Amino acid sequence: MFAPQPKRSIFSGLGETFLAVVLGNIIYFAAAPLLPAALQHELFRPDLGLLLDFLVCAAVFYAIRLVRTSALKHQE
Q: 3 in a domain, yes or no?
């Protein structure tokens, strides 16, 4: 049937999440001067820039997970 999966800690994805947030923010804030004013985030205001920043971080997180799972599949 199915091979038993090893138990993962609640904090096992913490490093991936932290890396995704840091890299996502670096990418967003490096590109921010090139964006239109409506997509530039202002501090302490919910706006389209904040949404775009979140989407960049989510995309980086997805890419990290994709690379990690493909690397684990190739190890087997």
A: no
